[in-house]
Amino acid sequence: MATPPQLMHGKVAMVTGATSGLGLVTARALAQQGARVIVVGRNADRGAATVRHIQQETGNPAVELLVADLSVQAQVRRLASEVQTRFPRLEVLVNNAGALFTRRLLSLDGLEMTFALNHLGYFLLTNLLLDTLRANLPARIVNVSSEAHRGAQINFADLQGAQRYSGWRAYAQSKLANLLFTYELARRLEGSGITANAVHPGFVATNFGRNNRGVQALLWRVLHVAALSPEQGAQTIIYLATSPEVEGLTGRYFVKNQAVPSSKESYDSTAAQRLWQVSAELTGL
Ligand SMILES: NC(=O)c1ccc[n+]([C@@H]2O[C@H](COP(=O)([O-])OP(=O)(O)OC[C@H]3O[C@@H](n4cnc5c(N)ncnc54)[C@H](OP(=O)(O)O)[C@@H]3O)[C@@H](O)[C@H]2O)c1
Questions:
Q1: 51-54: which pairs have CB atoms within 8 A and are 24 or more residues apart?
Q2: pLDDT per position as a tens digit, 199-234
C-alpha cells in the first residue's frame, strides 16, 4: 500500500468513540498520516486492543488511549485534565462518540442519555479543551452530526424527553444540537485560529444501533446491506480533520467532502444561544 502523505506529522489529534466504526477508521487514518493520536474509548480492554491494532496497521507507535464514559460529566472533566497534563497541545479534536437509545435511559448524572452523550459530551469536552487547542494554531474541531437532524427541532419545553420519548426523535434532536453547537462555537471562535465544522458521514454499517434490542436492532442490521463501509463513511471526517483545502473554513456542514446547507432550524442563532446557555448550566461550565 502506498504511504499516504504525512499531512499530520508533528500534530496531536484526538478522536472520541475511536474503538469502533467511524471513529476507529478516522483515528487509524490520522495515525497513518503521521499524527500523534489520542484514542478515547469507554472500555479499557477495547481501547487497548484498538491502540494495538492502529499501531500495527500504521507502523506509528504514537497512539495512546484515554478512557472515559462521555455520558458522565465527571469522566469528561477527568479526561480533559488528563489531556491537559499529558499533551501540551492539541491540533485536532474529533467529537464522534454517539449512540441512539430506543428506550429512555438516564446517565449517571440523571440526564437523558442521548442528550447527555451525543450533545453534552461534545459541548463539555470541547469547552474544556479550548485552551489546549489554542496552544498551537491553527486547530480544528470536527463534530460528527447526521442528516437525521433534518426535520428535527430543539424541544426546549421537554429537552430530555421526560414527558414523551422516542429514540429516533431524541437522536435527531441531538444531531441538530451538534449543528447548533458547531455554528455557535464557530461564531465564538471567529478569528481565533480554531475552526469548527460538522459532518454527516452517510449511512454507514458500523456497530451503531447494536446497543438496542428487538425489532429496531434487527431492522438496523437488514438496512446495513445498503450501507457504506466505515472506510467510505469516515472519508469526510478525515477530510475535515486533515485536508489543507479546508484550512480556515469554519461554521460549515459537510457531506461527501462538500459544504452543504443544513436544515433551516440549524441556522437559528437564537436557539443556538439558548441551547448553549442551557448546556452550560447543565454541565456547570
Ligand atoms: N453509522 C451511521 O450510519 C451514522 C450516520 C450518521 C451519523 N453517525 C454518527 O457517527 C458517530 C459514530 O457512530 P458509528 O456509526 O461509528 O457507531 P459505533 O460503531 O457504534 O461507534 C460509536 C463509538 O462511540 C463510543 N461510545 C458509545 N457510547 C459511549 C459513551 N457513553 N462514552 C464514550 N464512548 C461511547 C463507542 O464505544 P464502544 O466501542 O465502547 O461501544 C464507539 O467507539 C455517532 O456520533 C453517530 O451519531 C453515524
A1: 53/24, 53/28, 54/24, 54/27, 54/28
A2: 999 999 888 877 777 766 677 676 677 789 999 999
Q: Which residues line ligand 1 (CB under 6 A)?
A: 17, 19-23, 41-43, 46, 69-71, 96-99, 117, 144, 146, 200-201, 203-204, 206-208
Does pTM surpass 0.90?
yes
Span of 7-16, 30-39, 124-133, 215-224 with lowest mean pLDDT: 215-224
The structural architecture, per CATH, of the domain 12-278 is 3-Layer(aba) Sandwich (3.40)
Q: Which of 16, 42, 228 maximizes ligand 1 atoms within 8 Å of its Cβ, making it the mutation to test the pocket?
A: 42
Every domain of the chain and the residues it spans = 12-278
Q: Nearest-CA neighbor of 240 among 115, 96, 136, 126?
A: 96
Burial class (CB in 10 A: 0-12, 13-18, 19+), 141: buried
Q: Which residues are catalytic?
A: 171
User: All 3 cell numbers of residue 93?
Assistant: 479534536
- C-alpha distance from residue 141 to each of 44, 62, 229, 274, 277 (Å): 25, 21, 24, 21, 20
Query: What are residue 37's DSSP bridge partners?
Result: 13, 63
